[in-house]
Write a structure and sequence with these properties.
Length: 236
């Protein structure tokens, strides 16, 4: 899994296999990326386990300590220790992690606060996940070496695409990027498919359908607009 937003609840409802064993790679600890943790259904059953990897914290003792400050009274009725399932937190930085046969590469990417992008490599298939990615500036198309490494030749790049070009002009320091920039990163790094996500909450289905239509006619590489429940098949 990537991140633990509200979608974690809906995904968890479909995890019927028991016992549940999972790994989640969290990009950063902003609320919208972790607020689904206590509502992840497998953690409400004894014997289920999840390993949560998240970026090392500069001003706090650990990732676990930060989460403990979020999930406690009066902010929330129970803490992590009160959940029946087992949660193991792992503080990581620029490094590689093995999860079974999958190699996960983590690299710091520009955002507000410590933020990681991830790349999965398994059986010749690769996926990069760059959730909140700060574009350097209005109409500035550059990327860090870490971003290049994560995205290089991937089969699928899942990338922040919060703003239209016009919207980005007034929000250039908010930690995100334009749709144009997300597509540029994919093209510049040779990604085969770019999935645009982390849409602005004010972007309705009509606007996103328009983006999908334009990208379908004019974009190289292949571009899809992510939606809830979307499944993409990679490889043969």
């Amino acid at each position: 899994m990537f991140d633990l937003g509200t979608g974690a609840r809906y995904f968890g409802l479909g995890c019927s296999a028991q016992p549940f064993r999972g790994s989640c790679f969290v990009s950063h600890l902003h609320w919208d990326h972790v607020q689904g943790l206590p509502f992840f259904p497998p953690l409400l059953q004894l014997g289920n386990e999840i390993d949560i990897y998240a970026p090392e914290q500069v001003e706090h003792e650990s990732v676990a300590a930060v989460v403990d400050t979020m999930l406690c009274p009066p902010l929330f009725p129970v803490g992590v220790a009160d959940l029946p399932g087992t949660i193991r937190f792992h503080d990581i930085g620029n490094e590689e992690v093995r999860v079974g046969e999958v190699t996960v590469t983590a690299r710091y990417i520009p955002h507000i606060g410590n933020t990681l992008g991830y790349r999965l490599d398994w059986n010749g298939i690769s996926v990069a996940y760059l959730s909140d990615h700060q574009q350097p500036g209005v109409d500035i198309y550059e990327m860090t070496d870490g971003v290049k490494e994560l995205c290089d030749g991937v089969d699928l790049l899942i990338h922040d695409a919060q703003y239209t070009r016009g919207e980005f002009v007034g929000r250039a320091a908010w930690g995100h990027c334009s749709i144009d920039y997300a597509i540029w990163v994919g093209k510049a790094t040779g990604a085969r498919t770019v999935a645009l996500f982390h849409h602005d909450p004010m972007h309705d289905d009509g606007l996103l359908d328009t983006v999908a239509s334009i990208c379908g006619r004019h974009c190289n590489p292949n571009v899809v607009v992510a939606r809830e429940g979307l499944t993409l098949q990679l490889g043969g």
